[in-house]
Amino acid sequence: MRNHPSPPGSISRRALLTGTAAAAGVGLAGCGSITGGLSGRTRVKQWNLLAGGDGAIMTEMHGDFSAEHPDVELQATTFGWGTPFYTRLVMGASSGNASDIATIHLSRLKSLSPGTLMDPIGVDELKDHGLNPEDFPEKIWEKAFADDELYAIPLDTHALVNYYNKDVCGQVGALNPDGTLLVTDGVEEYFDLLRAVKEVTGEFGTSLDTFGGWRQFWAWYRQQDGEMTFADGDYEMDDDKALAAIEIMYKMAEEGLCPTFADGGQCSANFETGAAGLVQVGNWEINRFKLFNPDNPEWFSMTEMPSFYNGNRYTQGDCHSFVLPRHNSWDPDVREAALEYAAYMLQHSFRWGEGGGHTPAYLPVTESAEYQALQPNAEYSGVVQNVQFDPDAWFSGSAARLFDETGSIFNQVYALAMTPEDALALMKERIETLLALPSPVD
Amino acid sequence: MTVKTEAPPVPAAMTRPPQANAKKTSWTGLWFVLPFAAFYALFLVYPTFLGLYYSFTDKSLTGRAASWIGLENWAEAFGDERAWAALKNTAVFTLWSTPILVILAIVFALLVHRARKMGWFLRMAFFAPFVVPVSVVTMVWTWIYQPDGGLLNHYLQLFGIQDASTPQIWLQGENGIAMWSVVITTVWWTLGFNFLLYLAALQTIDPNVYEASSIDGANWWQQLRSITLPLLNRTTAMVITLQLIASLRIFDQMYIMTGGGPNRETEVAIHYIYIAGFEGFRIGYASALSYVLFVLILVVSVFQFRLFSRKED
To answer: Is B82 on the interface with A (CB under 8 A)?
Structure first.
């Protein structure tokens, strides 16, 4: 079992049906990159990995796009999150038969061998569709380049955040007068909060995804200003800081403050059922939690990750971005329509932020007064500054091998089946093995 | 297909030799085979040889130019500890699952064969799981094995076998627990196929044999040992061969249910090939690993089949 996003809530049945219909459509339409078809419309095929609650929002936005662009036939297909998606993207692109546009995690750009598998995007092309480089945060915009070519159009920033059940946290007096969660400083202070919450819930203090341990590790390691760099077959990491981060996992699980085992689905379910009063999970679960109690969608709120070290509220995160997989030949109309689609999604990403919980990368949206006032998004808006991207290596990034292989170790730590010391030793061994592999993208 | 080889009496006036006629008939048959043969060649024979070729190159999924590297992939495969561990896990799964899948299939087939009423229901009940797709089977069983709120732990706690504060983790359980969990799922799912083969074989046994033996005073147990099982020998040889091949090719359940965990305890051969090829983009190396597994399965099958056919002689 991987770190799949949780099974989506009820609305996503619609998303699932749409996805299935789209998949069936692709099947019927055959594999060729056909423009038009019977309707005479320009067909744009989109592949995405948004199988969670945010996928439903994307489907909704696709409906709006199609309504406003009757001449474009958008065929979106959702694949299983992570490796299943990337496998298809890479195989499709290596034969030149992938979709016209696809979503990726920006941290995976280099691992996807953009030079051979992706088609570069001209900055002028973007400008023609109303997107300018200055409309993006600089840190993210730079990451969209590889070998001085622009390959990705960033859609959002997403990160681990801290959700809290207002009722439960109110009962233990952990809320400020304005109803927001008290800011804690240091591991012990936060553990005290979890202990108090555990008293109320009778089960856990916080829930988290024990299969996605890399995310938590990276947040807590970076909060200590730990560095991890890979270069020339060697790597550098701070063992003491890494051990401290792993020890947090072990101690939290040992004391019963968090589950010893919870996949993506159960992680969120623990929060919904009240087994846990808090949950450290990605902002993309916002839609699921709102739908859990439609009569009172404000039963919870969200804030940034608690600071464990140095007053840092760093968190692990990534960016969903659009890329153009390599085509054997581009139909100019299709390329035009694909970029028009990307521009539309960015310019209308207010909904993406409101419904999907992601912070839009497109600054005209995030800087708008309307977005600034949006709750609970405003409460965790600081993640954009505090987000920590995965280390730079071909095997690193969301759902990449470092994520998977260390995740399976951390899963054992949460299960109390492995001591932090053993886990660190094994983690280093795994990293060394990955480094010894020939890089497929050089 | 029958081909006439005997030449009919030929009138002297006929110019064409009769052999040509016979040949023509056989070519017609080929046309019927062609669609399948083309499909087979394109999607099985060609990729098989292409894979063998790739195993001598550093072919990458990223589409970068591949170059011939000789036996490097093969040397790496034989020295790869993770590959050997995966093969060992595959062997463990095979050794644990095969006997259960064969013995339970016989037992259930015997039960259903004797059932006078409700036979149709039992046949359906035992076979039904086999037609369910793997994604559904694994999803249902993942729910059953869920530590908190899963069906299995729920009942274990209800009967007081398990303490609710320390729920058993099944699919990431160490020391073989995860492996056994998958074995049980697999047995539930695929038993129906072996069961059906045995049931069909049981129905071909002449009832007169049983009648004759009862007249001679044989009891049920003697009949089973001396008549039924020996007459099922051919089926057993086939079932074991098919089962070994199926078990050695285990991938889906592991990939979906355990992801190879805990700590690679259930990482099986094909899963590692998948990781090397599709996560690591190393098609060349993954091809070499595939061939190692292919040869291994071939050896096991041939050896096992010979063993059984010799017994029968």
So the answer is: yes
Q: Which residue of B has its CA nearest to A267?
A: B148
B213 token code pair: 């033996």
A212: contact with B, CB 8 A cutoff: no
Complex prediction ipTM = 0.82
Residues 6+ away with beta carbon under 8 Å from A172: A193, A196, A197, A199, A200, A277
Q: Which two tokens stand for residue A199?
A: 């008293």
Q: Which residues contact A89 (CB under 8 A, 6 or more apart)?
A: A47, A98, A102, A104, A112, A325
From chain A, the residues in CB contact with B288 under 8 A are none
Cα B88 from chain centre:
17
* Structural domains of chain A sorted by starting position, each given as residue range(s) with its CATH number in brackets: 12-155+319-367 (3.40.190.10), 160-317+385-436 (3.40.190.10)
CB atoms within 10 A of CB A86: 25
The whole-angstrom separation of Cα A335 and Cα A306 is 43
Q: What is the model's pLDDT at position B306?
A: 83
Q: Would B196 be classed as within a structural domain?
A: yes
Closest Cα in chain B to A417: B174
Across the interface, which of B64, B259, B260 has its CB nearest the CB of A116?
B64
Residue B67 lies in a domain: no
The number of domains in chain B is: 1
Q: CA A167 to CA A185: how far, in whole Å?
A: 22
**What's the CATH number where B104 sits?**
1.10.3720.10
CA dihedral B40, B42, B44, B46 (to 10 degrees): 140
Q: Which residues contact A382 (CB under 8 A, 6 or more apart)?
A: A304, A313
User: Distance (Å, rounded) from C-alpha A214 to C-alpha A254?
Assistant: 19
Q: Which two tokens stand for residue A197?
A: 């919450």
| Inter-chain residue contact B279 with A408, CB threshold 8 Å | no
Q: Name the pTM for this structure.
A: 0.85
Q: Are A187 and A386 in contact (CB under 8 A)?
A: no
CB < 8 Å to B279, chain A? 83, 87, 400-401, 404
Residue A151 CA, chain-centre distance (Å), reads 19
Note whether residue B111 is domain-resident. Answer: yes
Q: Is B148 on the interface with A (CB under 8 A)?
A: yes
pLDDT tens digits, A49-58: 998 788 999 9
Task: Provide the residue range defining the domain that includes B242.
Answer: 83-312
Could you tell me the end-to-end alpha-carbon distance of chain B, in angstroms, rounded to an integer? 30
Whether B42 is covered by a domain: the verdict is no
Q: What percent of chain A stands above pLDDT 70?
A: 91
B282 by DSSP, 3-state: which?
Answer: strand
How far, in Å, are A283, A301, B290 from residue A375 at the CA level?
Answer: 13, 8, 53
**B62 Cβ under 8 Å from any chain A Cβ:** yes
Please tell me the distance in Å from A90's CA to the nearest CA on chain B. 7
Find all residues with CB under 8 Å of A344, minimum gap 6, and list them: A65, A68, A69
Q: pLDDT (tens digit, 0 to 9) for every residue of chain B, 313 residues total?
A: 444 455 555 455 555 555 555 555 667 888 889 999 999 999 999 999 999 999 999 999 888 888 999 999 999 999 999 999 999 999 999 999 999 999 999 999 999 998 878 888 999 999 999 999 999 999 999 999 998 888 999 999 999 998 888 888 999 998 999 999 999 999 999 999 999 999 999 999 999 999 999 999 999 999 999 999 999 998 999 999 999 999 999 999 999 999 998 989 999 999 999 999 988 889 999 999 999 999 999 998 888 878 877 665 5
Q: How far is CA B144 from the centre of its chain?
A: 25
Give Cα separations from A439 to A101, A436, B60, B191 (angstroms). 26, 9, 10, 43
Residues of B in contact with A326 (CB under 8 A): 63
Which chain B positions have a beta carbon within 8 Å of A400's beta carbon? 279
**Cα B201 versus chain centre, distance:** 19
